[in-house]
Design goal:
- By secondary structure, the protein is of the alpha+beta class.
- The protein has 3 domains: 72 residues, no CATH class; 192 residues, ATP-grasp fold, B domain (D-amino Acid Aminotransferase, Chain A, domain 1, 2-Layer Sandwich), CATH 3.30.470; 78 residues, no CATH class.
- It is built from 11 helices and 15 strands.
- Helix 1 runs antiparallel to helix 3.
- It is globular, with a radius of gyration of 22 Å.
């Protein structure tokens, strides 16, 4: 207890000492709205420290600097992940099961389970283990990485336990040559890049739906559908659309992407949220206006996500990442530890009420 109080006191002292780090009006996403005063912003951070032990992360992107916004209505990222881990574990235990998180966290296991159950997923080329290639369903036999030279196209090498797009390598193969993240590499250099971990190899999805490509065609644009299981069935907690921008090959917000709200009818909200552009109404590259843009295959996307929840029956909540192709939605990932900050950001409201309703938090 004394140690926790000491850490909170230090955090409060740091906020007071570095007020300029926390009170930065130029970072607002809502310049047209009445703003809180410097003292109100500092009080918000101190109140948050007293409850959670640390200042508010992403204060401005979530719009907490706007008059009338209460930090108590918002859920912080670390607390969110802790709650999800606990409720998933408790749900599995209540069903006399195990903690099923591993089968989502390991992208190799996820790809196999989804494919085996008939869900649309990208082709799995194989698994790189410390520089050697194991193909799917080949009974564990390893091959030299050079066998990939026979392939042609763009591929993603995903760390099997990677988060938020970190550690992904974009591998282009043509005429027997390897180009990793834009630089031609030898077989030995590619082995060195992946020798410390395990990587799932999948081809880059190139057949995005024409309407989705019209928004931005340099990245794989995705839909995040966050679902929760209740005693009455499966419900959708929230939905977002994520697209890349500029030269970013990723739709992830932390890599220059743009996030926007998706309503219950599959239509985009008025604003997109970006780290660099802040709050915008149209894509900065294509000029496509967000508000009212209707996503293709939205009802089918929700239906498939609900069916996938049945496969992952040991999970209380999952955030599904979906790509919308010419042939329909395909699953990219299932996230046991989905982020709440982006949902609160695009909805411009906190999820504390949802957490109390579905996760029994105080």
């Amino acid at each position: 207890m004394k140690n926790k109080l000491y850490k909170k006191a230090r955090a409060i002292a740091s906020v007071l000492r570095h007020r300029g780090k926390y009170v930065t009006p130029a970072q607002t996403y809502y310049p047209e709205e009445p703003q809180k005063s410097a003292s109100e912003i500092i009080r918000d951070h101190i109140g948050h420290i007293l409850r959670y032990g640390y200042p508010i992360h992403d204060y401005y992107p979530q719009g907490l600097d706007v008059k009338g916004q209460r930090w108590q209505d918002y859920i912080p990222a670390y607390y969110n992940l802790k709650v999800q881990a606990n409720v998933n574990k408790a749900w599995a235990k209540s069903r006399r099961g195990y903690n099923y998180v591993f089968s989502l966290d390991d992208k190799w296991s996820f790809a196999e389970i989804m494919e085996a159950n008939g869900f649309p997923v990208p082709e799995t080329v194989g698994l790189l283990c410390e520089g050697k290639l194991m193909r799917l369903h080949n009974q564990g036999a390893f091959e030299d990485i050079d066998v990939l030279r026979a392939r042609t196209g763009r591929f993603l090498l995903k760390p099997v336990r990677g988060l938020s797009g970190k550690g992904i390598i974009i591998l282009d193969i043509a005429d027997g040559r390897f180009v990793a993240d834009g630089k031609e590499v030898s077989s030995d250099e590619l082995r060195a890049m992946v020798k410390e971990g395990k990587y799932l190899i999948q081809p880059f999805v190139t057949n995005q739906h024409p309407r989705i490509k019209a928004i931005f065609d340099k990245s794989l644009n995705t839909v995040r559908v966050t679902m929760v299981r209740t005693e009455k069935g499966v419900e959708t907690l929230g939905c977002m659309f994520m697209t890349g921008a500029s030269d970013s090959a990723y739709s992830n917000w932390h890599f220059g992407g743009i996030c926007m709200y998706v309503d219950e009818n599959g239509r985009l909200g008025k604003y997109g949220y970006s780290m660099s552009k802040k709050r915008i109404t149209a894509h900065p590259d294509s000029g496509v206006v967000f508000e009212g843009f209707e996503l293709p295959y939205f009802r089918e996307t929700l239906r498939l996500c609900e069916q996938a929840m049945d496969v992952y029956y040991g999970m209380k909540t999952v955030g599904w990442d979906i790509a919308l192709t010419e042939d329909g939605p395909i699953f990219l990932e299932g996230n046991a530890g989905w982020g709440v900050i982006a949902h609160q950001m695009v909805e411009h409201r906190g999820w504390a009420d949802k957490f109390r309703k579905y996760f029994s938090t105080k």
